[in-house]
Write a structure and sequence with these properties.
Elements lengths: L6 E4 L2 E4 L8 E5 L4 E5 L4 E5 L7 E3 L10 E6 L4 E6 L6 E7 L2 E9 L9 E10 L3 E6 L13 E6 L5 E2 L6 E8 L6 H19 L9 H14 L30 E2 L3 H11 L2 H15 L9 E2 L10 E3 L10 E3 L10 H17 L6 H15 L18 H19 L7 H18 L1 E2 L4 E2 L15 H4 L8 H13 L19 E2 H13 L3 H12 L11 E2 L6 E2 L5 H16 L4
Amino acid sequence: MQPGVTRVEVNGVERIDGYLPLRDYALIGDGRTTALVGRDGAIDWLCLPGCDSPPVFDRLLDAEAGGCFELAPEQPFEASRRYRQGTNVLETTFTTETGSVRVTDAMTVGDLSQRALARIVDARTGRVPMRWRFEPRFDFGRREPPPELTLHTWDAGDGSFDLEPGARATFALRLNAETTTREEVERELERTSAYWMDWSGRARYEGPWRDQVVRSALVLKLLQYEPTGAIVAAPTTSLPERIGGELNWDYRFSWLRDGIYTMRALLHLGFEAEAEAFFRWQLDATRPAAPEVKPLYCVDGTVPVAEEELDLPGYRGSGPVRIGNAATQQLQLDNYGHLLESASRLRGETGSLGSEAGALLASFADFVADSWRQPDAGIWEVRDGLHDFVQSKAMCWTALDRAATLAAEGALPDRGSRWRAEADAVHAWIEDKGWDESIDSYLPAPDLAGTADASLLSLALCAYSSASEPRFASTVEAIRRDLSAGGPLLYRKSDSAEREGAFLTCSFWLVDVLGRAGRVEEGNELMGELVELANDVGLYAEEIDPEFGELLGNFPQALVHLALVNAAVSLAEGYES
């Protein structure tokens, strides 16, 4: 047990200093926003109307004063839960000494005018006195909840109710003033369940990790903002990478650095419409200021507001709580590799990029040809100085290589000879300045000798290197040796152990490169250990505490679920890349 915390069990579910462990949350959503539903029946996080809007429920970051929507038995209970097969409809069964009830939670999809956060309580056996509390707090208490936010209830009493077996209570939270009927809410929930089953049933993966792959795909679909196609990194802000630490960031935005992994996962699974929507959003977001791009954008394609710190306690006292993200002002050269590789993959799958994409993508390639020698903030968005990150240079190589290839195919204006020459120059730089013969490994950056960085695993994932190429293979072994956090876990860089948890994406990247190198048995063994680290409904946060197993960082994390899907695909294909 960790020292210095107060653990209080209320009706069978433990909260720590008033906060539910992240493992005890599940995610529901409607293509515009999402909500976190706790094992104890409390919804502690919901932003409205969109995923990057101010929250209506924010107890996730303020246990004492935050808004929430509680719904649970009055008596001590045991809780078990699951998603309906192939859906994002959550079912929690509460069992007490006197009976059991099932609570079904979902955000309905379809006609915008009918969308609602629906909660349905079905009495199954005996009698279970239930209590509920609806206490919104808008924008972290800085504004009053909007008047059009309406909670409709049926057979739910005034904060408490008691149902006979077979009876039902229904709740519907709507962000409009329109009336609704119980029958409409319950009908829309069932339509939502059918929608998710149909969507997930189209996933093309048939390997041994299908359950985990489909669940990850469903998480990614929840995190995709339907009106534009953007996929947010996570639906939360300021969940700490170490309890009591200060690495607390707002992840309710879409990062270009997720591009390759997003495109590969969606296209492999057969979700072309989602892949095309994400790619079009990338182009729309980056076009206004091209050829310079921001690392991240709001889901509507605008640039986030300046980073701001709020006067809130933060999850388990981990401040500061931030909204906005200052990384938007950084130079991150790896983004260009994601844009050009995404274009290449999409064109290879669909045969076309559209009439307006070529000139924009060519301007990105020109920028990289001019700028790749600059130091940048890198994939980990360091805020303490710029470096010549090898991973960034490798992504510049990817951008130039893909641009030259696309130009040869007639998809981009033909400046391919220059792009190819600069790609060769990048490659020569990496192999000279980015390689350390004494340790038989690529370096994070020439001025960071003596440190390790798991981002170098992506050199094979971005096609710079073959997974079985000797220099890359020895770098992988150096990363496993120097960044191990025990078992299948890796820290992302040398100073991480003192500041954060193990970075789960890096562990799935390791599985991915093992699969690409044909080391399928070893990769499947690690994959088996990693899937056991998800919570009970298959969700991952950004990081995990190697000692106590607590999930850390924003939750759930798109990049982790993308890495899981891509690792599973590489293992199923078992190819040498």
